[in-house]
Amino acid sequence: MAAIDGLPPLRAVIAAHGLSARRSLGQNFILDLNLTARIARAAGDLGACDVLEIGPGPGGLTRGLLAEGARRVVAVEKDPRCLPALAEIAAACPGRLEVVAGDALAIDPAALLHPPVRVVANLPYNVGTELLLRWLTPPVWPPFWQSLTLMFQKEVAERIVARPGSKAYGRLSVLAQWRSDARIVMTLPPEAFTPPPKVQSAVVHLVALPAPRHAADAAILGRVVAAGFNQRRKMLRASLRGLAPGIEAILEAAGIDPTARAEEIPIEGFCRLARLLAAGAAHRP
Question: What is the strand order of the sheet 117-122 is part of?
Fold first, then answer.
């Protein structure tokens, strides 16, 4: 941590600013700066990138990103208690850290960043999935980000990378893998955090593809996948019947067995179905 070794240990920072983690904000802090540096390195070479960080808390990962050479870090923090600690890091790294006070769900980060952009964050558990879905479903693709390196509960991470036929395969799997290469790069035990959560955590690295793997309208695909997996125990002819008249015939035309369940269908199959639904909608009066 030579670039910022004038800063105190994180435990001292937390004590000085009274930063006990709050469950209501989904906070679990990582205090080991060697570990936060490893997470930063999992995002690749940051020297030519702006980095978006959500929920920096006392700044452990922020310090890791800066120490690993990030060109510039934009850190969005909802908890006003953390702002003085983050201001100390900004003062130690002039021009390289911008702290934005506010709710990540209410801020357009693209307006604050200069490409290429990578997102690296120990996401608050209570907003992590929603933020990921937003980043995977922008109005225009490619998105503002080049890659996402994100901490989730291990169960969520496994859903992101799951393959068809597995119990973990679902909406997140399809939407993530349709537009990105996704893999788990690190697993962390509860004791890596303060306070320790009741579950294991994992870091997922997603690299945006230049174009989706298969042609499909994003909004229609999203509705198909949501309907299929919201009632995943039902056959598709039942779970998707609200999407269009004659859904059984449309499924057959897409090469999908109407009695199959959503977890059996590969991404390509969902995309074929979305294309047929789009074509049918275009021809209906």
Answer: 97-101, 72-77, 50-54, 117-122, 147-153, 201-208, 180-188
